[in-house]
UniProtKB/TrEMBL annotation:
Active site: 57 (nucleophile), 202 (proton acceptor)
Motif GXGXXG, residue numbers: 16-21
Transferase recorded as keyword: no
Residues spanned by motif GXSXG: 55-59
Keyword terms, alphabetized: Hydrolase, Lipid degradation, Lipid metabolism
UniProt keyword annotation of DNA repair present: no
PNPLA domain location: 12-215
Assigned protein family: Belongs to the patatin family.
Full protein name: Patatin
Amino acid sequence: MSNRSTSKIRILSIDGGGIRGVIPGTIVEYLETRIRAVTGNKEAKIGEYFDMIAGTSTGGILTSIYLMPDEKETGKAKFSATDAVQLYMKFGNKIFHKKFWQHFKNFSFWNESFPSDNLEVLLEEYLGDTSLSQMIKPCVITAYNFYERRAAFFNSANSRKIGGEVRDFKIRNVARATSAAPTYFEPAMIYSLSEAPQFLIDGGVFVNNPALCAYSEARGLNFSDQRVLFGNYKQPKPDKPAAKDMLLVSIGTGSSKKKYEFEQLRNAGLIKWLPVLIDIMMSGNSETVHYHLVRMWDTLDDADKQDYYRIEPDLKTASPEMDNVSKKNLKLLKEAGESYVFENTEKLNEIVDKLLLYN
């Protein structure tokens, strides 16, 4: 660091994966706990120690919670990482709750699996009327506009610009849109603060791992501008940072390398292929993004190439299903996150050291 005139931009990216968000949530909870232990600041919250957070689907919900502003103090986060995990542990069974008639055979062939009411009520309870532009740090939350046939990137920095009302939304609506997974929840119709409509589904249909999106968005931002980045930093932050100016931590929601037999699929129709395609699409995108980021960071000097981390926890005995909210599976998901922490404490502590170094 002695040869640098600026600090690095610290970026957190979290994949999609439904209730499996418990796993990255648990890992981030450890990072926050470690920060509190090292700094002695018992009120430290994870949103204050990254300069940008990106998320898709369940990762988008976590992003929204981490970056919610505290009404009492500018630049401070309202929620802790523990608060975020508890959203899933306490209310996961409400988010993925079927009404009586939805249990009937073949219902999901003709309708979404779950009503969106409970999710919307929960998001309103946690996120209120806070807008995207009020997030304490830049964020990138993904969705897909199926009416206009284009990817949608909700970036809080863009929403702060002059005339940004058309790109500014209530964050609860953004969280609802990014998690509108086809066949699970109905699509989301949301309005910007200027009342422009958007017709959206889950960003996981095209970018389940948003780390490369976070990199691209960060490249265009002037992080020295306090209107973009709140915080009391020891060193100046770089504008339009390159890879060498970034610490990028990308977290998956639990790898599920389920093998599909040739005979199982050789004559399969749509019904058999659909769940297989969704599984391959999600894991394939995450692997592709990781591949490109590894190649990018490999071009850097030795010291800088160590600042990209891909954390892909193992599900252990937890179910890979994105909607399995049984008490047993919630416990197994939490244990899978804790198991990763136990087995990789040294790496996670190293990340915390860098988060504090680049403050």
